[in-house]
Design brief:
The structure holds two protein chains of two kinds. By secondary structure, chain A is mostly helical. Chain A contains eleven helices and no strands. Chain B is an alpha+beta fold. Chain B is 32% helix and 23% strand. The N and C termini of chain B lie far apart (74 Å). Classes of the chains: A mainly alpha, B alpha+beta.
C-alpha cells in the first residue's frame, strides 16, 4: 500500500519556506557586501571569486542584492496577500451575513473588478499613483480583494442557516460573537489555502510591475527591477539578469508547492479517505 | 413552435462560424499590406531598413515638417530636406543649397542659391521659394524667430537678401539648423506632416511614433541616390532594436544601448562613432533654499564621478565633461575648468555651509532636516537613468540624499516646481556656434533657464556676444561665459555623447556626424 507523504512534504516545504523567510528577515546581517555600495572599478565581474554571483554594471555585489531583493519582494507579497485576505474576508462576511442592498452593491462592484484584467488595472493604478513598492502593493490590492470576498461570502451564506448558528443565536449570542466564534474559524481554512496559493502569483505580479518600472524604484534592490535594469545585458553579462530571475523562479515555485500541499493537508476528504483506509 | 426554435438554433450555429471567419479574414486583411511591401522588396529593388529611437512625439519630432518643433531634425536626418549651408566634419560651414553668401552690412546678408536644385514637388528652387519657406518659418516657429530676428526677406532670381532687426552674427549658422530646411511652401504641408524637400529621398508615409517610408528622389541635384526604398522604424526600446539588428530585420540602427555595442564590434557589422556636442548635464533650481548656498552647489558638483560614469557606465562611449562644449571646439573643454570629483573636499564644504550629520543616519542635516535633492530626469535617453543612479551613490558618500524621479512626464514636475536638480541631454552647439546654449539655458529671458539662474557678469558678456562678428572673439567670449556658469555651479556637465551608428552587412556610406543630424545621405548604399 502506498504511504501518504503529504504531511511530510508539507513539513519539508514549510521548513524551506521558513529558511527563506529567515533569510529575508535577517538579510541586513547575512549579506556579504553592502548591496547599495557602488564600485565602478569592479563593474560587471563574472560570477566566482570574491563575488559569488558576480557584480552588476555599478559594481554592486549581485549575491547581496539578490538576498536584499528577497526581503523587498517576499515581504511586499506577504503584505499584499495579508491585506487582500483581511479586507476581502471582512467584506465577504459582512455581505454574506447581512445580505440586502449593501450586499448587492458590493458584489456588483466585485463583479466589475473580477471582470477586469488584473495586471492592466494594476498598471493603470500604479501609473497614476507613481512608482514605489507601496504603491504597487496598493494597486494590486485594489484588484485582488474580490476573490476573497466571494469565498467568504459564499461560505457565510451557506453557514448562516445552519442549525449550529441558529442554536448560537437562540442561546443569546450577538452578531459579532457569532461571526467571531462560529463563522470565522469555519471559513479560515479555505481562505488561508487560497492565500498561500496566491503568494506566488502576487510575487510574480509585484515583480512584473517593478520590471515595468511601476514598482520598486532604483536603487532599491527588488528582483523585478533588477531584471529590468539587467535586460540590456542579457547577451553580454547574463548573470545580471539570471540571478534575480532564478531567485524569482525558485521562490515562486516553493510558495506554490507549499500552497498545494497545504490544500491537500487541509482537504477534509483526504482525512476521510485516510480514516477509511485505517478502518 | 418547436420547429421555430430549432431554426433559431441552426441560424445561430451558422452565424457563429460566419462571424469567426469574418474576424479571421479581417485580421489577414491588416497583414496583407505588409506582405505586399515585402514582395516588392524581392523584385530586385534596393530596400533598406533603418532603426531609430528618436522619431517620436516624446522627442518633439512628430513628423518631418521643419517648421514644427524639432521635426526638422527628422527631416534633415532622413535625407528629406536640406539647409542653405551645411557643416563639415570639423563643424565648419560649407555651401549646400546656397552657393555663397556675402554680408553687405551688419544687418544685411546676400545669399546666392544654386540654380540646379528642384523640390520633390517638381518646382525649381529659386530665391522666391526660399523666401516663402523662411517667411513661414519665422511666423510659426518661436525658436527660429528668436534666433534669426528677421526683419525682411527679398528675392531676386537666385539671390536672397535677408535683413535682420539687429546684428545677428551667427545668422548663417542658425540657417543651417534643421529648422532651416528649405521646403516647397506651394506644395505645402500634408495632413500627416509631410513636406516636399530637396533631399535625396522623399517621404511617402509619415506615421508619428511608428516610422516613415522614403523613396528615391529621381531628380536629386547632387548625384543619384542608390537605394530605392528606405523604411525608417521607430523602436524606442533599445533591447528590441538590438535584437532586430541581430536578426537582420534592420540594416542599420542609431541609438542602440551601450551594453549591446560590443555585440556589433565584429564583422559583418561596422560601428561609426563620433563625438558630438550633445551633453548630459544637471541644472540647479535656485528656488530651493539649500541650493542658493554657493558652497552646497560646489559640494554637489564635486560629488559627481564623471570619469567613472563615462568610462564604466557608458562603456567609454563618451568623454567626461567640464562645460557644455567638447574639446574639439575652439571654446571647448580644454579652455575651461569645473570642480573635480573630490568627496573629501565636498564634505568639508558642506560642513562649512553648516550641514552636519548630527543624527548619525549617514546624511548631513541642518535644523533637523536632511539635505535631500529631488533629481528629476527622463528615461528616453538611456544615459540619464544611469547618471541618476550613479550620482545617487556618490552623493550618498558625501552625505547628500538623492531622490531620483525618472519619468517621461518630467515636464510636469518641472512645471510644478517639484525638483532641485534637473538632468537632461541637450545638443549644446548644433550650429557650431556657442551663443545658442547660453540664449536657451542661462540668461534671464531663456526659455530653458528652468532654475531661475541669474548672473550679472553673464548678462554683460552676452551683450558683447550679441554684436561680436569675429569668430575668435566669439570663442573667447564663449569661454568666459562658460567659466562663469561653471564658477557659479549653476550647471554641472557630466559627459559628452559619443554617437554611434551600427551598420549591418554590406551597408556603406552611413557615417555619424558631429552635428548629430546628418544620417541618411545620397552616399548610403547596401550591397
Amino acid at each position: 500500500m502506498k504511504r501518504d507523504y503529504t504531511k511530510l512534504k508539507c513539513i519539508i516545504l514549510s521548513i524551506l519556506v521558513g529558511l527563506l523567510l529567515l533569510a529575508a528577515v535577517f538579510a541586513d546581517h547575512i549579506v556579504p557586501y553592502d548591496p547599495y555600495a557602488q564600485d565602478l572599478e569592479h563593474a560587471l565581474l563574472p560570477p566566482g571569486g570574491a563575488h559569488l554571483l558576480g557584480t552588476d554594471r555599478y559594481g554592486r555585489d549581485m549575491l547581496s542584492r539578490v538576498i536584499m531583493g528577497g526581503q523587498t519582494t517576499i515581504f511586499s507579497s506577504l503584505l499584499l496577500v495579508l491585506i487582500i485576505m483581511t479586507v476581502g474576508t471582512m467584506i465577504g462576511v459582512f455581505c454574506g451575513y447581512n445580505g440586502g442592498k449593501t450586499d448587492t452593491v458590493l458584489m456588483r462592484i466585485s463583479d466589475v473588478f473580477l471582470a477586469f484584467p488584473g495586471m492592466v488595472f494594476a498598471i493603470a493604478v500604479a501609473g497614476v499613483t507613481g512608482g514605489g513598492i507601496i504603491n504597487a502593493v496598493v494597486a494590486l490590492a485594489c484588484i485582488s480583494w474580490p476573490k476573497y470576498a466571494r469565498i467568504a461570502r459564499s461560505q457565510v451564506m451557506a453557514m448562516k442557516e445552519a442549525p449550529f448558528i441558529a442554536a448560537a443565536r437562540l442561546s443569546g449570542s450577538g452578531t459579532w460573537k457569532i461571526i467571531r466564534k462560529h463563522m470565522l474559524p469555519n471559513i479560515a481554512g479555505p481562505v488561508l489555502v487560497t492565500g498561500v496559493l496566491d503568494i506566488g502569483t502576487m510575487m510574480m505580479e509585484i515583480a512584473g510591475l517593478s520590471f515595468l518600472g511601476l514598482g520598486a524604484v532604483p536603487p532599491i534592490a527588488e528582483w523585478g527591477s533588477m531584471m529590468s535594469s539587467g535586460r540590456s545585458m542579457l547577451q553580454t553579462s547574463p548573470w545580471v539578469i539570471l540571478a534575480p530571475g532564478f531567485a524569482i523562479f525558485f521562490t515562486v515555485m516553493l510558495f506554490n508547492l507549499l500552497g498545494d500541499t497545504v490544500r491537500d493537508v487541509m482537504d477534509p476528504r483526504r482525512n476521510k479517505r485516510q480514516k477509511r483506509k485505517g478502518d | 413552435m418547436r420547429k421555430k426554435r430549432l431554426f433559431h438554433k441552426k441560424a445561430g450555429a451558422v452565424l457563429l462560424p460566419l462571424c469567426l471567419a469574418a474576424g479571421l479574414l479581417s485580421g489577414c486583411g491588416g497583414g496583407s499590406t505588409d506582405t505586399k511591401t515585402e514582395d516588392n522588396a524581392s523584385a530586385g529593388e534596393k530596400v533598406f531598413y533603418y532603426g531609430d529611437t528618436t522619431f517620436n512625439a516624446e522627442n518633439d519630432e512628430s513628423d518631418v515638417n521643419p517648421h514644427n518643433g524639432y521635426s526638422g531634425w527628422a527631416c534633415i536626418r532622413y535625407g528629406i530636406g536640406e539647409t542653405l549651408f551645411k557643416y563639415s566634419d570639423k563643424m565648419e560651414l560649407e555651401p549646400w543649397l546656397a552657393a555663397e553668401y556675402e554680408m553687405t552690412d551688419e544687418n544685411t546678408w546676400k545669399i546666392t542659391l544654386r540654380d540646379n536644385v528642384t523640390f520633390s514637388s517638381g518646382r525649381r528652387l529659386d530665391a522666391q521659394a526660399a523666401k516663402e519657406c523662411l517667411d513661414d518659418l519665422v511666423s510659426v516657429h518661436e525658436r527660429a524667430k528668436g534666433d534669426l530676428k528677421i526683419k525682411e526677406i527679398s528675392a531676386d532670381g537666385q539671390i536672397l537678401t535677408i535683413t535682420t532687426e539687429e546684428p545677428v552674427p551667427a545668422l548663417i549658422n542658425y540657417l543651417s539648423d534643421p529648422y532651416g530646411c528649405i521646403v516647397d511652401m506651394e506644395a505645402g504641408v500634408s495632413e500627416d506632416g509631410n513636406v516636399a524637400g530637396t533631399g535625396p529621398y522623399i517621404a511617402t508615409e509619415v506615421k508619428t511614433d511608428t516610422g516613415l517610408t522614403l523613396v528615391k528622389n529621381e531628380n536629386y541635384w547632387d548625384g543619384e541616390p542608390k537605394l530605392d526604398t528606405i523604411h525608417v522604424k521607430t523602436i524606442s526600446d533599445g533591447d528590441t532594436m538590438t535584437m532586430a539588428m541581430q536578426s537582420g530585420e534592420l540594416d542599420a540602427a542609431y541609438g542602440l544601448p551601450y551594453a549591446s555595442l560590443p555585440l556589433f564590434a565584429e564583422k559583418p557589422y561596422t560601428i561609426s562613432s563620433v563625438e558630438t556636442s550633445r551633453s548630459f548635464f544637471g541644472q540647479m533650481n535656485y528656488d530651493t533654499p539649500a541650493l542658493q548656498d554657493e558652497k552646497v552647489r560646489k559640494a554637489i558638483a564635486m560629488s559627481i564621478d564623471k570619469e567613472n560614469f563615462t568610462k564604466t557606465l557608458l562603456d567609454g562611449n563618451g568623454t567626461a565633461a567640464e562645460g557644455p562644449f567638447p574639446a574639439n571646439f575652439a571654446f571647448g573643454d580644454d579652455t575651461v575648468t569645473a570642480p573635480k570629483y573630490n568627496p573629501e573636499e565636498a564634505r568639508k564644504l558642506l560642513e562649512e555651509a553648516g550641514w552636519k550629520d548630527s543624527d548619525g543616519d549617514g546624511y548631513v542635516d541642518k535644523n533637523g532636516e536632511n539635505l535631500t535633492i529631488r533629481w528629476v530626469t527622463y528615461p528616453s535617453r538611456q544615459e540619464l537613468p544611469l547618471l541618476a543612479e550613479s550620482v545617487q551613490a556618490t552623493m550618498k558618500e558625501v552625505g547628500i540624499k538623492v531622490d531620483v524621479n525618472c519619468s517621461a512626464d518630467f515636464q510636469s514636475f518641472l512645471d510644478k516646481g517639484e525638483w532641485d536638480i534637473y538632468a537632461g541631454a541637450f545638443v549644446c552647439a548644433p550650429t557650431g556656434d556657442p551663443e545658442y546654449f547660453f540664449t536657451t539655458h542661462c540668461l534671464d529671458e531663456s526659455s530653458k533657464n528652468r532654475g531661475g539662474y541669474h548672473s550679472d557678469k553673464l548678462q554683460a558678456l552676452e551683450e558683447e556676444m550679441k554684436s561680436a562678428f569675429d569668430t575668435e572673439k566669439r570663442a573667447e567670449l564663449a569661454t568666459q561665459m562658460t567659466q562663469t556658469i561653471l564658477d557659479d555651479n549653476a550647471f554641472i556637465f557630466a559627459s559628452h555623447l559619443k554617437m554611434s551608428i551600427v551598420s549591418g552587412e554590406g551597408v556603406t556610406g552611413l557615417e555619424a556626424h558631429p552635428c548629430d543630424y546628418y544620417e541618411i545621405t545620397v552616399d548610403l548604399d547596401k550591397n
